[in-house]
Amino acid sequence: MANLPATDRTPLRILVIEGSPVACQTLARAIEELGHGTRTAGDIDEAWEDMLAHPVDAVVADWPTAGSGALELARRLRHREAVDAAQHTWLIVTPPPSGRADIPDALEAGVDAFLVKPVDRIALQAALATAGRCRDLQVEARAVRAELARRDEQLREEGRRDPLTRLGSRVRLDEDLRRVRNNVHRYRHRWTAVMIDVDQFRRYLETMGREAGDDVLRRVAKAIRRTLRDGDLAYRYDGARFLLLLPEQDEDGGVVAAHRCRAAVAALAIPHPRSDVGDRVTVSAGVAELLGAGADDIEDWLRRADLALYAAQAAGRNGVARGGHTHLAGTGAEA
Asked: pTM score, two decimals?
């Protein structure tokens, strides 16, 4: 009788459990002639140690050799797969001559298929072909899960970025604020917030239109990003406002960082036809240091940065303020 059609599947890794060395080698050789790789074990305990050290795709176990251990092996395999999300190992058992009564218990324990002894080559080839399809389906399923996980993470990461400026979004900000709170509470780290707003941006939109306004926000965000140190965090807070979170910085350091941002935006020299500050786009900034680690402290922290921003705008814009004091553009003086 002719063999079943050959396939281009990757060869299986198969463990043969057989008490008789001669029978074990005969079965292993028959499996290898079908194009698969084999290892051998003389009993269930030896087989289990082998499988823990060397993963296999399928096991062919002689029931008389294994005895009730065949059921125990099946249970161990299925338990490991359930707990560790391990690959399903296809378990083929050669039952005893009177084995029909044992088949329901074997299936319940997790045996996948049976081979009658003496093992027929075609039956063996068919059983291993089924094991191969199972292995291939698992490989495909893992690849699909990995791709779905990659896309899910990509979507989550996109949700953490503002689509216009590519800075962190409010979703990302909420996540990072929780981390900041934990760091300050647990390790006494210090953080400073810098709230930045494009001066008279509404007037710019009314004159130049939404498309030009979006371009300004992109360019301002890029300029701000270039001023940051490693570890500094930047977000689009809302509208034309941006927020920086600066780790291990006090308010003095925050003022310096805010002036860097202000100068970088001014250097873009973007014309602003209706600005009261000058003829180009400018920004104002408010600086506040985090004083505590509770939820109220976080809210108060950002509120104080916001109030400092309003103080900078009230003092004439294109400046940096903190704690009610305004640093005039380009001078660092207070007014």
From this structure: 0.63
